[in-house]
Design a protein that fits this description.
GO molecular function, one term: flavin adenine dinucleotide binding
Strand order of the largest sheet: 1-2-8-5-6-7-4-3
Protein name: Ferredoxin--NADP+ reductase
Cofactor: [2Fe-2S] cluster; FAD
CATH architecture of the largest domain: 3-Layer(aba) Sandwich
Structural class: alpha/beta
Keywords: 2Fe-2S, FAD, Flavoprotein, Iron, Iron-sulfur, Metal-binding
Low-confidence stretches: 1-7, 17-21
Largest sheet: 8 strands, antiparallel
Helix content: 25-40%
Mean pLDDT: 87
Length: 300
C-alpha cells in the first residue's frame, strides 16, 4: 500500500490519498430505493479523519471521471467510509455496476470543512431526497453530543424513502413528508418546519440539505423568524482543492468555493438563483452520457 498526504492549497489542511490496487474495496453494498444505493468502502486512513459534512472524490476506474460524494458515515474501528449515491449519470451508473469485493480506482479525502455542531443544543435538521444521506451523519453527531434533534425529511413518494430507521435512532422527533402523501404526511418539509416553529420550538440553528430549491425556501422561511440556517452546497466539482473554480458560488456578495470554503454556508446569504442556473448548465450533456452508458451496459 502507498499512502500519500496531499495539501489543500487554500486551507493548508492535510488530506489523505490512499493508493493500493486492492484498496478501496467495496465491503458492503445494498440498494436503498430504485435509484439510490449504499456502499461501505475500505478506506482506513480517510475513516480515521473524516467528520460529518465532508466529502470524498472517487474514480471508478483509471479512465473514469472524478466525482464528489459526501461521506454519509464512517467507522474508525473498522476503517470504512460509507457513501450513498443517486444513479443519475454515466459515472454513477458505472459505479453501481460494481459489487461487494470489487475495488475503486481512487478514493481521496476527507475534503471540505466539517459541519459545525459544537455548542448547538436544539437543532432542526431538514433533509430532502438523497440529501438525507448528508443530513444523517450531522443529526447523528448532534445526537451523540446530547443535543435535541428534530429531523424533517422529505421525498417525492413512499418508494423513495431512505434512512428512516437511522434518522429515528438519532432524532428526538422525526417527521416524514411525501409530495404525494403515500407515506408520512403529504406536503413539503417547509410546512413541517413552520408548524414546529409556530408551536413554540426554539432552535439554535436549522440545518437544511437537499435540492437547491428546497434549501432556498427553507432559508426564506427561517429568515422570517430570525433563525440561523446552514445549507450544504453541492455544485459542479472537478479537483476538490479550490484550484479549478468549477464549484464557485456567490455568498453574501462574495465568490466562495464549495470544495474548500464549504460545503456548508449561511443559507441566508447564498445566491440560490445563480446556483440553480449554474447547476443546469450541463444537464443535456449529462443526460446524453447517461443514456450512452445505459446502452453500453445493456449490450454487456
Amino acid at each position: 500500500m502507498v499512502h500519500r498526504q496531499l495539501c489543500d492549497y487554500k486551507t493548508g489542511i492535510q488530506i489523505e490519498a490512499e493508493e493500493w490496487w486492492d484498496m478501496y474495496k467495496i465491503v458492503k453494498k445494498k440498494s436503498l430505493n430504485p435509484t439510490v444505493s449504499f456502499m461501505e468502502i475500505d478506506a482506513p486512513f480517510i475513516a480515521k479523519k473524516a467528520e460529518p459534512g465532508q466529502f470524498i472524490i472517487l474514480r471508478v476506474d483509471e479512465n473514469g471521471e472524478r466525482i464528489p460524494l459526501t461521506i454519509a458515515d464512517f467507522d474508525r474501528e473498522k476503517g470504512t467510509v460509507t457513501i450513498i449515491y443517486q444513479i443519475v449519470g454515466a459515472t454513477t451508473k458505472k459505479l453501481d455496476s460494481l459489487n461487494e469485493g470489487d475495488s475503486l480506482q481512487d478514493f481521496v479525502g476527507p475534503l471540505g470543512v466539517p459541519s459545525h455542531t459544537e455548542g448547538l443544543k436544539r437543532v432542526a435538521v431538514i433533509g430532502g431526497g438523497v440529501g438525507c444521506a448528508i443530513a444523517y451523519p450531522i443529526a447523528k453527531k448532534l445526537h451523540q453530543s446530547n443535543a435535541v434533534v428534530h429531523s424533517v425529511v422529505g421525498f417525492r413518494t413512499k418508494d423513495l424513502v431512505i434512512l428512516e430507521d437511522e434518522f429515528a435512532a438519532v432524532s428526538d422527533e422525526l417527521i416524514i413528508k411525501t409530495d404525494d402523501g403515500t407515506y408520512g404526511t403529504k406536503g413539503l418539509v417547509t410546512d413541517a418546519l413552520k408548524q414546529l416553529i409556530e408551536r413554540g420550538e426554539q432552535y439554535d440553528e436549522v440545518i437544511a440539505i437537499g435540492p437547491l430549491v428546497m434549501m432556498k425556501f427553507v432559508a426564506r422561511l427561517t429568515k422570517e423568524y430570525g433563525i440561523k440556517t446552514t445549507v450544504s452546497m453541492n455544485p459542479i466539482m472537478i479537483d476538490g482543492t479550490g484550484m479549478c473554480g468549477g464549484c464557485r458560488l456567490t455568498v453574501g456578495g462574495e465568490t466562495k468555493f464549495a470544495c474548500v470554503d464549504g460545503p456548508d454556508f449561511d443559507g441566508h446569504l447564498v445566491d440560490f438563483d445563480e446556483a440553480m442556473e449554474r447547476s443546469s448548465m450541463y444537464r443535456d450533456f449529462e443526460k446524453h452520457h447517461y443514456e450512452a452508458a445505459c446502452h453500453l451496459f445493456d449490450k454487456a
